[in-house]
Amino acid sequence: MAAFDCVIRGGEVFVSQALVRCDIGIRDGRIVALGEHLDAGDEEIDASGRWVLPGGVDAHCHLDQPMSDGAVMADNFETGTRSAVCGGTTTVIPFACQFKGQSVWAAIEDYHQRASQQSYADYAFHLIVSDPTPTVLQDELPRAIAEGYTSFKIYMTYEDMKLNDRQILETLMVAKSAGAIVMVHAENADCIDWLTELLESAGHTTPEYHAKARPSAVEREATHRAITFSELVDVPILIVHVSGAEAIEQIDWARRRGLNIFAETCPQYVFLTSDHLHDPEGCGHKFICSPPPRDQANQKVVWNGLRTGTFQVFSSDHAPFNLDDPKGKALHGKNASFSKIPNGIPGLETRLPLLFSAGVTQGQLSLARFVNLTSTYPARLYGLFPQKGVIAIGADADFAIWDPHATWTIANADLHHAVDYTPYEGITVTGRVTETVIRGRVVQRDGRLLVEKGSGQFLRCHAPDFDLM
Amino acid sequence: MAAFDCVIRGGEVFVSQALVRCDIGIRDGRIVALGEHLDAGDEEIDASGRWVLPGGVDAHCHLDQPMSDGAVMADNFETGTRSAVCGGTTTVIPFACQFKGQSVWAAIEDYHQRASQQSYADYAFHLIVSDPTPTVLQDELPRAIAEGYTSFKIYMTYEDMKLNDRQILETLMVAKSAGAIVMVHAENADCIDWLTELLESAGHTTPEYHAKARPSAVEREATHRAITFSELVDVPILIVHVSGAEAIEQIDWARRRGLNIFAETCPQYVFLTSDHLHDPEGCGHKFICSPPPRDQANQKVVWNGLRTGTFQVFSSDHAPFNLDDPKGKALHGKNASFSKIPNGIPGLETRLPLLFSAGVTQGQLSLARFVNLTSTYPARLYGLFPQKGVIAIGADADFAIWDPHATWTIANADLHHAVDYTPYEGITVTGRVTETVIRGRVVQRDGRLLVEKGSGQFLRCHAPDFDLM
Amino acid sequence: MAAFDCVIRGGEVFVSQALVRCDIGIRDGRIVALGEHLDAGDEEIDASGRWVLPGGVDAHCHLDQPMSDGAVMADNFETGTRSAVCGGTTTVIPFACQFKGQSVWAAIEDYHQRASQQSYADYAFHLIVSDPTPTVLQDELPRAIAEGYTSFKIYMTYEDMKLNDRQILETLMVAKSAGAIVMVHAENADCIDWLTELLESAGHTTPEYHAKARPSAVEREATHRAITFSELVDVPILIVHVSGAEAIEQIDWARRRGLNIFAETCPQYVFLTSDHLHDPEGCGHKFICSPPPRDQANQKVVWNGLRTGTFQVFSSDHAPFNLDDPKGKALHGKNASFSKIPNGIPGLETRLPLLFSAGVTQGQLSLARFVNLTSTYPARLYGLFPQKGVIAIGADADFAIWDPHATWTIANADLHHAVDYTPYEGITVTGRVTETVIRGRVVQRDGRLLVEKGSGQFLRCHAPDFDLM
Amino acid sequence: MAAFDCVIRGGEVFVSQALVRCDIGIRDGRIVALGEHLDAGDEEIDASGRWVLPGGVDAHCHLDQPMSDGAVMADNFETGTRSAVCGGTTTVIPFACQFKGQSVWAAIEDYHQRASQQSYADYAFHLIVSDPTPTVLQDELPRAIAEGYTSFKIYMTYEDMKLNDRQILETLMVAKSAGAIVMVHAENADCIDWLTELLESAGHTTPEYHAKARPSAVEREATHRAITFSELVDVPILIVHVSGAEAIEQIDWARRRGLNIFAETCPQYVFLTSDHLHDPEGCGHKFICSPPPRDQANQKVVWNGLRTGTFQVFSSDHAPFNLDDPKGKALHGKNASFSKIPNGIPGLETRLPLLFSAGVTQGQLSLARFVNLTSTYPARLYGLFPQKGVIAIGADADFAIWDPHATWTIANADLHHAVDYTPYEGITVTGRVTETVIRGRVVQRDGRLLVEKGSGQFLRCHAPDFDLM
After folding, report:
1. Cα–Cα nearest to A374, from A396, A357, A395
2. How many domains does chain D have?
């Protein structure tokens, strides 16, 4: 019998902030040895000339999530996770969304059904809390935490989701007492509604007005408010999909005051601008997501935040809608006002290559920071570490094996999601995930899936680790 | 033949931000295997119940450094590094100090003689540049960098050391073009001299006036000025021994602007205050170092900076002088004015236990952050990584093996330096380094040295790694 | 016939930032001459040895205002303005408060009835907008502005008053288009309610918990939010009764960004602290007002804001309730929880002497700044200038004649309001208003009223002047 | 005998932040009456339809100042003050410059000779302290202050002028103890020299490199440093000719901390940019002054600073050199490197019209703020108030009488200085000073001088007034 089920041999392996030449020995899906010249495995993967990084953890994505307006997402768990693993992501954490009036448990069960036997990647669930009734707060959420659902997302905008200030405070109290992390979508609902009505009543309905209806000040205000709630309750929070300088200023200000404010940003805030919404050929709706992309000056500040520690998490916020689909971006017709267009863009598969190329290859981001942002820190924050997010003895054998020098151009035709476009079409990147390994099995090689759907496993999350740095 | 020269077995090993249970296989002084149930080694170390962390890197200490005023340091390389290894530090980077008029190479050679066959720890040298003549700038420093002396310290104060603004700019230019990191002692010399004369002429000469002669504003000003030089030259710098909120404000401000400003702090700024200088029994001179310790509010801001990323390095700034020694603190007599008392306090052996206890044990600092600050980041910044500062295949087998639960009280009688006091006498800490391992050899166990002096090796530094995060 | 109805002779008169020796000639209630050695008047007032300043304008006071909880204010227009003029204030701007469901015009008419033939001081009205229905926004408010009610106060807290974010935006739009200034009471209602319930459920009901239920963060958040609304609508606002450093930080931040944010503070934030609420003799309720007084560190920041331009207005926020009165502070009994005690403290008569003494006499505030804060700037901001707030040809002959050297101790027994206490009892001040002159008539001398009630006139306000500096 | 020597009748007169319709009665050069329908004067000036403002005080200008490099200023006291009064300025404060090795008194006497019987405007002197020897510090400066020279300017750059940090501290100590105000030219000399050598050695010598040799960071650093000295000595200072956002950030930061930092800016920082230095026709040297003009973003921040209180003084920094003159801008030839071109631009006559037009006429600045910045505040700061800088009984009868509606275009041909260009050629402004009155005499009307040179008087300054706001 071979010493190992599998040995990955000859690669440069990322451990402890360093790329070191070593072999990886795997047994029963776990890493059991790191060393020079390991004995043979039943299977051998030749990683020479390549980099072996921890598999990506995409901590913010929407898959097969029912929408209250009737829109239907283009990706279910099968297509979404197929896309994820082809982009080097081995764990995804989509949302189980409670609708108003619904039990949290009903939502959890619904999502388990949607995911069951479908996923290529391992997966956990965040809960979206949209109706924090006393029962939910006192009974359902504490129990859900105990059973491995240790992160809640709350919305400060969207009519069907948003919590008022009091509800946010009460939800934070549960997170504090029962040990969860709260993710906050921070935009001021009233301001957006008011601006939207002003714009629409002036006839401004094309996609570029989406950005004008959600200016930075609206995000900054809600960010400041959420920080205040975190301060009053004395519990950490994470601000999701931070788009630019104004929200960053608030977050940095809070951290200098000693508050535990975490922050996430996404590819759209470093690779897109609001100019994309102003598409002369009428495809601005491709880029409608919230908050909207800002401008180049903001991109630069986001990069600085990635580099210097404002951000701990870089996620896709994958929210997939087909373009001409009457159940997608064209829900209310092709000429519907921006406010009627489903929000969100796809990004599960492109997240890692985009950041690797613009960050690591081009020298804006250390490799250690790249791995932290895309894998280790989300695993730690969301209670999956050290099972996930790290190459260490005992951890799951999840890897993205990179050819750091491969140069290629993003084309939707080559992607594996079920969405009919990518907002990043035509961008050339350097760095490609040639193989993705989950629990010791190669799930894709060069874009070909080597396992059946359903091989991904559900993960129960432990308590969040707030001591990231 | 055993597979390994040595195996450390059964410990919780810190790799990649995590403590994982695994064995460490060592051959020829290097880590060659990490795994569960490794084969036997010629030597076996039982680490069960303990934590195996990377050996500490103390990147700021003064050993056997000749002083222009005739003072003599209490520690030479033998006693200083003996103390270091007993405190869990495996690599030290003291200073080779150029005197005005002296060649840099003469300084380097002098220090090699002082260190040769004396050191228990591995060691590299920073250069102190006090006379940046054209020859030094154009010839000596670039050559020194090429030969492994890749960090310079410069002073903005001290009559015999300080550079003027122009000299600093020119030294930074060399660092930029030849690839070194510049460490800056940031205090405004003229302000200190002026305040000192005012105080002394008013009869205020006792040690507490040391702090009044060097208020925070004096440090803040020089910090801002150094940042400006870094910005103009477009080269990173590191501000050493940052003492409190005012300098931190400048550093954080610079980082938010995208500048590459690194920062170090020391035990004296989190465990001492200026009240210690005001000793009714006349021992205030024990605590005279520059910048001086501040107050509790500043300590809190320093802690926040350690926790949130202002600081990358936590060093001892060990500068050892005996108390009643006419070549030490009493150089000009026991009642000499504060301005005549040699600056500096010892700290090589207490650095790690103090921070471990107040930080990790008491929950102010994650273990990952502790390791980064005391080992990994200094190794990376100063070009010793991944040989030093990390537990990874191929790295030197340098470890501090901790009993994380041992509680003990610091007493100078138990320390291994040659200084007649410790400023931390009587502080009770939890966490103790029971064994220190350098290149696979146990150099101390429970405070007993197990090797001969001179076992430490000289290290040539590579280019600094500025992409820490 | 004498050249003047009245001549004030021989005083040091404050004009254009200077105290100059000159006479003031008055005819028909207006200043018609300033000069050396003016001709005789029918009446002569000898001001030699004294300072003649513009009469005070108290732009924030509550008089005879019906409360939705049944509490009854201790002062009506007669007693309140009697007190005001005895303290050197010649113009007051109390509030005409719209209740929910009520027409703004009904509120205005109600207050005119309450004030008519009662007032010693001249008076205008701010409107409190608590129910911005479409009719109110589109019709009533624009018409009210046109008729001289050019300032609205809105509340972000208090159940019966508070507007939601959308209502605030819409009210600001009216202010922008029709030319009014909006005053904002900035505290987060939900946070206060939540904290109050937490405290009360823990049995913490004594007055000191009033401050704990309304911490600085709650005020800061609402201030930041109000600033955001001002920014989005692009209209100036004024934050009333700012209590300390946290809100000030937001205001200064906004002003540096070029936003037109004005701010007011009150005597309670420089002369009281939250310690007053913690009265061992059970009189903490004397000091219950919102926001609550903070601590000495905050006082210092408020002083700096008064001195350097954060604040444009220093008002009393006079809100008078008797202590043991079942219609006053004891509305729900003497042992009622802090949340049931009517908010507010008296201060019309003590506002000017307190600030004069601690500011001008003690050298913290220039005389020019004192006059701006207490008279000129409120007159300008609220559209009463140059009729009020200045000593200039054509202005109303309203003066406070001060003995700048008189030292006296505040005692409620000597005050002229109808409230049974003053929170400033026992404070000794230097500087006393010996005579108050309104439109050329001496209304009080040494605390004796020399005119009948009803001599005060109603003032219609012009558009606000936002170019204060 | 008429009641008044002169009456200015029917104008709108600026007093106490307001324009009021009144007559001004003058006797013996002083204002003795303000009133409606004053009696006749021996002379009558009809100001109907016009605005009567306090005469301008230009607190920063260089006249007939000998230069150590041999350059000769184009304006002496006659031509400079002729220009000043034609632009509405009635008081100038040029510099009496001490050269190294020279007694302060020798400098004062030299300048009195230069000014005597030459000036059209009243004048005082600032002292430039370039050699603070013990005699100067202990004897000459205190005596000079006692005799009416109560402001010192010091330089942090310029080889022949600059003080080192210690000298600055000692000069500030004299200012503190003897009651003077110190004006600081804040740019880091070493940085400028170093950058200049780098640029010149790369062949970059044309005028646009003047701006690159003095970037904002160089000014910001020196500003921060000067603020630190002010803080340590605990004495107010004024930063002269602040050019943009970076220095402003430091000044605002200092003021928020409670420090008494005053600031001045000049027309070049709101009406010119560094693009002017990049003149394709080779006239960039016209615009060489230090600090250099910045860009439009900086202009906007300077405007905000003028509007919100960062700045107290708006001066010309008139430093006149002829363009093709071998004793002027062409001192070292027309193709000399930027570093050899005399620094400075003319501006005495254009200062008030430029700010009035862009500020008051265009609504960026209130009239009160305009008067404060250009007249009242400099008079107060420099100890000339209330004799100068205000329209009040007892003050000197100095006025600028404005036609606020006159629109005209600046042309050097129409100006009254002796310089062969104006940097503001071709700018159209609205607002013109039609008459200038000094101590009751009309000195110019519509650009024609009505008095002889020498009518201007020397003014001794009192202690500075630091309580401006």
Report:
1. A357
2. 1
